[in-house]
Write a structure and sequence with these properties.
Shape: globular
Structural class: alpha+beta
Oligomer: single chain
Number of strands: 4
Strand order of the largest sheet: 1-2-4-3
Order of helices and strands: HHHHHEHEHEE
Radius of gyration: 20 Å
Strand content: 5-15%
Distance between the termini: 37 Å
Number of helices: 7
Helix content: 25-40%
Largest sheet: 4 strands, mixed
């Protein structure tokens, strides 16, 4: 809603980019919405800065739901660079003017899809990491709920494309749909030696 203000804040963060700033803003983010009232664009700018200055652009939460990604310092990046991309922010702002964004359980959101709607699902991949990135894990029961929700949507005439890992559970859940072998690179893997291409699946209802 306020791209100019977001850009102005990010330019300040670029100049002050440091470990101290990172942890101050991380603490502010975890204070919740009240910490941002009255400051146009401040929340978005803080979120973008933490993403750009955090380790590998990772979003991670502790068991209480607090953002806890560590700072990525000079050993891995040059301070004060790659923080503010003005045209990307303005372009995102223009696109979002005609978008409707909802936050909710995936089962509820998918239930809105009707004939000829297209759903793209990029859920947490089954059994791909020992690291939990959010306060609530995405369980095998969630994988089953997701498959049922997509089946129901397909029966209503909607189309879907889903990405997931290549495991017996996922192949079994989507056995009645089109399954294509694919691959991905896990750029946020904590082990830099284990970031090569991994096999996964692309699943479609058409």
């Amino acid at each position: 809603s306020h791209p100019d203000e977001v850009i102005d804040w990010l330019k300040v963060f670029e100049k002050e980019d440091s470990e101290e700033l990172f942890f101050d803003l991380r603490e502010t983010l975890n204070e919740g919405p009240e910490a941002f009232r009255g400051h146009k664009g401040f929340y978005a700018a803080v979120f973008i800065y933490l993403n750009r200055a955090g380790y590998n652009g990772l979003y991670r939460e502790n068991s209480s739901g607090g953002f806890n990604t560590p700072f990525c310092g000079p050993k891995h990046r040059t301070l004060g660079t790659n923080i503010c991309f003005e045209e990307r922010i303005r372009s995102a702002s223009r696109s979002l003017q005609v978008a409707v964004v909802h936050h909710g359980d995936f089962e509820d959101i998918i239930s809105w899809a009707g004939p000829r709607d297209l759903i793209y699902v990029d859920s947490p991949y089954h059994k791909t990491s020992q690291q939990t990135y959010t306060a609530k894990d995405f369980t095998e029961e969630d994988q089953r709920r997701l498959a049922r929700a997509l089946l129901d949507a397909a029966q209503r005439g909607a189309y879907f494309v889903a990405s997931n890992s290549d495991t017996p559970l996922i192949r079994g859940l989507y056995r009645d749909f089109c399954i294509f072998n694919s691959s991905r690179v896990n750029a946020v893997n904590h082990d830099a030696q284990d970031r090569g291409a991994k096999p996964d699946l692309l699943i479609t209802s058409f």
